[in-house]
Amino acid sequence: DLQICQHRAPTCCTKKMEESYQAAVRRERTQSIQALNFELKYMIVGHITAFQEAFESLLRFAENRTSSLFETAYRPMAKEAAEPVKELFTDISLYILGAETTVESAVLRFFDSLFPLVYSRLINPGITDLSEDYTECLRLTRQDINPFGRYSKNMVTELSKSLWASRMLSQALSLGIEVINTTEHAALTKECSKALVKMQYCPHCQGLTLIRPCVGYCLNVMRGCLASVSELDAQWREYISTLEYLTNEMAASHDLEIALTGIRNSINEAILHAQLNGPQLSATVDKVCGQPKQQEGNLSSDNIVPVKEATETQTFVMAHASLNNKRREFINYMKRSRTFYASIAERLCDGDLVMRDSSTCWNGEDVV
């Protein structure tokens, strides 16, 4: 009653043993593919972690620099500006990690929150009544009167270019893990299970436990079993090329680090622009939102203190170098894995599975 290991000679196998062999080959094949995938997956997961750590470090650095701008140059509004600054960098972080948001909405939301503060603390520092209605009116007016000139739009353009590559790379790395996980659990067909049993275990039914499959025979069986997995070859090569393109984009004109550290200067230029155009802005705001209550005497807001950033800059340079090195190492490794899915049968037929150095091997029917 044997279905797979039928042979003219007497046999020590039963149908139940054949079923056990089928379960064994399925388990072994999953384990051997997992072992092959492990190094590749480990490299991608490691890079995702390293990328996120370096990115968070750069983000914190850029956020601290931006906060220090308000604490030193725009002290009257520093405390109230802390929350909008924090929100801006949180939105940027979420965008890179793939959240359904845009750089433009994050930046414009920040400037909407910033305008009431700039208007009431710097342009008209005598305002005492900043009610919710008046604040909301200022937020909405910001979109129409454009107090920050071209600087708010420039910031959107600069950040969008550099953050896009980072966002795409982050998503691409996660996709790579998904692809690898899917191939690990690719179901073996019944025909494949039978072919593997015939190749690995049918010799045992003849008492030939030390005889292993011939190399060519093993390759034929494995290629048949893994046809669906090896079909990924063209897409995997394209995927590696995309990773290469994205890492080059990040390191070139769309440099993430330069864009993040440039946020401080963009905000500073925007605030200075608003201050220079203070009288015109006040006239427009008075027409739209009405005149708020004023306090007697003007509060000085011109004392700008130079910022000391030597140690922070050193931290930034180290994070920048670390990210660049990680990119290079990663892409070089991934380029070497370009043929991963094309050569998977060869790699599974390597090592102890087949008979390499002997003239005697199993061809599926007999010892040859």
From TrEMBL:
InterPro entries: Glypican, Glypican_CS. One of its GO terms (cellular component) is side of membrane. Belongs to the glypican family. The lineage of its organism: Eukaryota, Metazoa, Chordata, Craniata, Vertebrata. The keyword Ubl conjugation does not apply. Cell surface proteoglycan. It is found in: Cell membrane. It holds the Pfam family Glypican. GO terms for biological process: cell migration; positive regulation of canonical Wnt signaling pathway; regulation of protein localization to membrane. This is GPC5 protein. It comes from the Eukaryota. It is a lipid-anchor; GPI-anchor. Keywords: Cell membrane, Glycoprotein, GPI-anchor, Heparan sulfate, Lipoprotein, Membrane, Proteoglycan, Signal.
